[in-house]
Amino acid sequence: MLNCMTKYAQEDTDKALDMCLVKSLFSANDFKSIPSSGAVIKENNNEVEIKSLGTPETQLMVNIKPNKSTIDVYQNLFKSK
Q: Domain count of the chain?
């Protein structure tokens, strides 16, 4: 139930619980299938902090962009062999 309450709006989970009680459905799978069959999933607006991995030196390496060569450079390399 807690999983559904975090995934769906409270109104939808309340309706699902009411339906389960009215129809004598006592299975967690039955409860879970009711809101998932047509309820709108609640958006999670919490901002997530992204923690970088590695040391400051490795973080510098992430921002390095490689040099680019034109196709002519590669064609000349293959022609010379």
A: 1
